[in-house]
């Protein structure tokens, strides 16, 4: 279990590191600072804190799921899709400034992560709590992206 958790921690934090390169330059950019943002946008420091917590929880979730689920290939494929969508959002939003494409991407990401929760809740039972922060954060993040699309 520990080895699997470490593997997923490495994968999850590598996604954050790649995406973070775009976020680090995008957040202080004039373009982002001048966007009309949702009134419920959390303070900047909260994003790093939330993503760290979320990725730790998601690594634990995936470590349990990969052991308890008999369809490992499907789980790994969905994890890879989730990983790609997660990494893709930051450059789409901050570098290319394609907020609508980013909204589609984050909506797909939210759907995939929510699918994990719903599909595997009977298998993981209470351990499904480990994916809940990811789902909740993605719903918030999707609403923030949608606001930017609608009001800019």
Task: Please explain how this structure is put together.
- With 152 residues, this protein is mainly α.
- It has a single domain (2-151), classed as Ferritin (Up-down Bundle).
- 82% of the residues lie in helices and 0% in strands.
- The protein is built from 6 helices and no strands.
- α4 (72-95) packs antiparallel against α5 (99-124).
- The longest helix is centred in the last third of the chain and has 26 residues, at 99-124.
- The termini are far apart.
- The model has no long low-confidence stretch (mean pLDDT 96).
Characteristic terms for this protein:
mainly alpha, 152 residues, 6 helices, Ferritin
The Rg value, from CA coordinates, equals 16 Å
The third-level CATH topology is: Ferritin
What's the helix-strand series? Answer: HHHHHH
Report the CATH architecture: Up-down Bundle
N-C termini distance: 46 Å
**Structural class by secondary-structure content:** mainly alpha
CATH top level label: Mainly Alpha
Q: Output mean pLDDT.
A: 96
Task: Determine the CATH superfamily.
Answer: TspO/MBR protein
How many runs of DSSP E, i.e. beta strands?
0
How many structurally independent domains? 1
In this structure, how is the largest beta sheet organized?
A: none
Q: Which geometry do the CA atoms define?
A: elongated
What is the count of DSSP helices, taking H or I runs of 4+ residues?
A: 6
Percent of residues in helical segments? over 70%
Detail the topology: elements first, then pairings.
Elements: H1 2-26, H2 30-33, H3 44-68, H4 72-95, H5 99-124, H6 132-151
Helix pairs in contact: 1-3, 1-4, 3-4, 4-5, 5-6
